[in-house]
């Protein structure tokens, strides 16, 4: 059975019958939520684009996240995420900070415009039903393009001269969250290294700590590696072998990573 088509006009018509006080567009590219583990150039691109079209840009980042909820502390205490803990990562990196931001800035009920689509994975439809509208504790969520195919998205972009995030053109993802829970494989790190070497060095720094934590028994050894859901046992053993560990932490690397991710003063702490 084919899903029913819902046009942007019909979605907005449903939304107009709802009661809300302020509208926010959650922009793919890392503008809506700074997860702390995204590509900095992606966030800057959205800031620039918002400025060009004359809209205020709010970045929900570490100012709305508890220290224990930061990505580097989560992986230090529990290991790198895999598919089974994606929901926990989503809540800590995105949902909780967004809720705090909305509580802080909105006096009333917000309307949150998303870009999720049925033609993407179902896990991206967490906040919106197949009709393009849903309400939860955060507010009213709508996606005007819920029924769009990839081709329709491209056509809409061309028609309205909407630019494409250059990070997406390189990595084929927006770059707003690289937590690794649903990584295709560790080959993605090679792409990151090629286009965004400072971000890759940040992952080197993180893995130097998670590998050591796994050696000490803090969590199972397979959780030491980024994207471990697609890594083989041999990969775990090689990275945990003292003589074969290729990710070495150095002061210059750590400083570079802190500058790249605005993590100056970052330290790893126990939960």
Automatic annotation (TrEMBL):
Pfam families (UniProt xref): PAPS_reduct (PF01507)
A GO MF term: transferase activity
Transferase in keyword set: yes
Gene3D superfamilies: HUPs
SUPFAM superfamilies with a match to the protein in the record: Adenine nucleotide alpha hydrolases-like (SSF52402)
Keyword vocabulary terms for this entry: Transferase
Keyword Transferase carried by entry: yes
Phosphoadenosine phosphosulphate reductase domain segment(s): 33-170
Protein name in UniProt: 3'-phosphoadenosine 5'-phosphosulfate sulfotransferase (PAPS reductase)/FAD synthetase
């Amino acid at each position: 059975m084919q899903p029913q088509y819902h046009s942007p006009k019909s979605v907005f018509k449903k939304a107009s019958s709802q009661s809300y006080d302020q509208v926010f567009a959650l922009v793919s590219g890392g503008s809506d939520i700074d997860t702390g583990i995204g590509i900095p150039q992606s966030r800057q691109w959205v800031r620039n684009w918002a400025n060009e079209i004359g809209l205020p840009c709010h970045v929900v980042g570490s100012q709305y996240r508890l220290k224990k909820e930061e990505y580097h502390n989560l992986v230090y205490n529990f290991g790198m995420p895999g598919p089974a803990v994606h929901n926990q990562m989503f809540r800590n990196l995105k949902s909780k900070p967004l809720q705090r931001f909305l509580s802080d800035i909105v006096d009333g009920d917000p309307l949150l415009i998303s870009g999720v689509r049925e033609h993407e994975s179902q896990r991206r439809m967490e906040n919106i039903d197949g009709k393009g509208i849903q309400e939860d504790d955060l507010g009213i969520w709508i996606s005007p393009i819920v029924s769009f195919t990839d081709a329709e998205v491209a056509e809409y972009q061309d028609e309205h001269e909407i630019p494409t995030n250059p990070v997406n053109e390189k990595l084929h993802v927006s770059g707003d969250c690289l937590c690794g829970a649903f990584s295709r494989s560790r080959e993605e790190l090679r792409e990151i290294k090629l286009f965004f070497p400072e971000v890759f060095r940040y992952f080197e720094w993180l893995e130097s700590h998670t590998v050591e934590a796994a050696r000490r028994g803090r969590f199972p050894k397979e959780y030491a590696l980024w994207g471990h859901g697609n890594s083989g046992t041999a990969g775990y053993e090689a990275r945990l072998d003292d003589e074969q560990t290729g990710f070495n932490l150095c002061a210059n690397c750590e400083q570079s990573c802190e500058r790249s991710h605005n993590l100056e003063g970052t330290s790893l702490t126990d939960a």
